[in-house]
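User: My collaborator sent over this chain with a note saying "see what the structure looks like." That's all I know about it. Can you take a look?
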Amino acid sequence: MTRLVFLIVCFWTSLASLASAAPEVQVEEMGKAMGGWKDKGGKAAKFEVSGSTYRCWKPEVSPTPTGGIFVSMRIDHLRGVFSADDHSSLNVTFDKHGDIVSARSSIALQGKKVTSDLIEGTGKLGARLVGMELAARVGTEMVSSLSAKILRENIKEPGRVSFPAVMQHQYHLLCLAVTMPEVEDEAGEDDNPEREERKSVPLEIALPKK
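Assistant: Without extra context I'll predict from the sequence alone. Here is the result:
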């Protein structure tokens, strides 16, 4: 019994250590870039892009078994009281260094769901890409996939046509809001010398002007 208790304590201690070193999302800073989490009782932010109105909900964050984080976000296209709103989701996985592992997005338009390909941070993108360079490439690939599929649906409403671009704005905001906690490095040198250090700095980005 004593050995079992010891193993359980060691297990939870390891999990706590892993969680403390995981990337973090500066949720409040991200909200400020959209005017603040003032909608839906502080749970969402409302903003305009090219004359259309959108709502971004606070991201949901959970740890991954490998020490990274999985982030999911919901973005709505608000079409007015006489039309049903469109909904979208953005799912991004970051590794323990804060680099992109994979990203996928989807948009639901009047019962039709359009989903991008799963874009991974390795493979054809190349293992040499890290940090924001990798994030930018993954975001471009993801939105290009989503845009191509929406065009095939023959969608013409301005707010809907702009939806993939809005998704990319939110993706960029999220990537810039992900930082690494300042902890002592006990594991030695980084396994990727080309990785740029990610520090906790204020998020300085804004959505396109109205």
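A starting point for your reply to your collaborator: The helical segments are 2-20, 27-32, 131-152, 158-161, 163-177.
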